[in-house]
Amino acid sequence: MRLLFALVALVMLTGARDPILVPEVSQHEIQLRQGFTGTELLLFGAILNPDGTRAARDYDIIIVLKGPTQSIVVREKEKVAGMWINADSTEFRSAPSYYAVASSRPIADVVDDKTAAIYELGLQWLQLSPIGAIDPEEQQRFSAGLVDLKRRSGLYREAAKGVQVKEQVLYQARMFLPSSVPIGIYTAETFAVSNGRVVASASSKVEVRKIGLERVIANFAQDQSFLYGILAVLVSVLMGWIAGRLFALV
Question: Of 144, 40, 145, 47, which is closest to residue 100 (Cα–Cα)?
């Protein structure tokens, strides 16, 4: 009985020592308008004891910013007779449209592979969920290809030592959203890690949306996709015809 009480007391004390996170973002709404060239998002907050006092020890902080998931088809190019053509392809049902992670130290130095996989802490641990049966080696190849494409377009990012922690209380990280950033609801998740274990987490939301003419066009393309396609073709033909006439006059 004494041993039971001792264990209960130990668990209660251990839980009481776990910190709480108070996260915030510099913008809860990002508006995409004509001429938008990208923006920097500041994610910051505080690490506190449950009673609101300053945390008694150091914690590693990892921040993950994810955009809405989407279905993506990845096609592999193959050179045939001197020409590049589409070969094999794989469709992923739940790839994040945007993914950025920043940490106070390199993630491999903060958590083990199992923990990183559970919380998807890092590009190599993204759960992309391919549709249908696929060979593991092929899945790995297509996943690496998708991550590489997204990384080169600025939509997937990693920043080791991208989180600054001051006096064991305040933390902050800056993440850049490029001009091609997709619209939707983004989730910013903050994790406090101690001795390789995630001891606290908190999240906040950011909405990316189009306004003005861009919003009208985006809504029209989504609601009237067939008409939008026809108009796009007609505009392309018209612009080609105008360009041809101008060159003929030169």
Answer: 40
The gap between the terminal CA atoms of the chain, to the nearest Å, is: 98
β-strands 20-25, 69-80 pairing: unpaired
Cβ neighbours of 244 (radius 10 Å) = 10
Identify the CA nearest to 25 among candidates 192, 189, 238, 239. 189
In DSSP terms, 177 is beta-bridged to: 39
Q: What is the pLDDT of residues 110-134, one digit of tens each?
A: 999 999 999 999 999 998 877 776 7
Block means of pLDDT (10 residues each) for the chain, length 250 residues? 37 58 93 89 92 80 95 76 69 90 96 95 88 75 89 94 91 95 95 94 93 56 63 72 68
pLDDT at 13: 44
pTM of the predicted structure, to 2 decimals: 0.75
Q: Is 131 helix (H, G, I), strand (E, B) or coil?
A: coil
Which CATH code, of 3.40.50.720, 2.60.40.1930, 2.40.50.140, 2.102.10.10, is assigned to 19-211?
Answer: 2.60.40.1930
Give domain limits for the chain.
19-211, 212-245
Q: What is the DSSP string of 173-212?
A: EEEEE-TTPPPEEEEEEEEEEETTEEEEEEEEEEEEEE-T
